[in-house]
Design goal:
The protein is mostly beta strands and about 130 residues long. About 10% of the residues lie in helices and about 30% in strands.
Amino acid sequence: FFFFFFFQAEDGIRDFCLSRGLGDVYKRQVHGWREELREWSLIDCMDTVSVWYQSTVLGMNFKEINGKMMWKVLVGFRRYKSDGPKVNDNSRHYNGWSEKYDEWISPYSLRIQRPGTIAKICLLYTSDAADE
């Protein structure tokens, strides 16, 4: 014999939820903001070792595959700032990682989220060791 008792929590939670992870958040989002991404759009992006960074869309690539228009965005894991400690080849100052770490990613990937939603702090790299 098994008995199951349900007690309502004092904070008003009424249903049991197995996951409150990124997948659940993603399922509830409207994707319209992703379709409005353009070069120089700011985003939060997760790198290949699951670390989130404030990032910048640096380029876009569109191609037709089987009659469907597919696209990717070039993500730079950095934010350009006039007082950034690093300078790229075009003399633009930035915080974050160099172009050697740029990556083409689908804008519908879970790795791309609205700016300021996950990567809360802009990482400041003051030494060039981060680029090596």
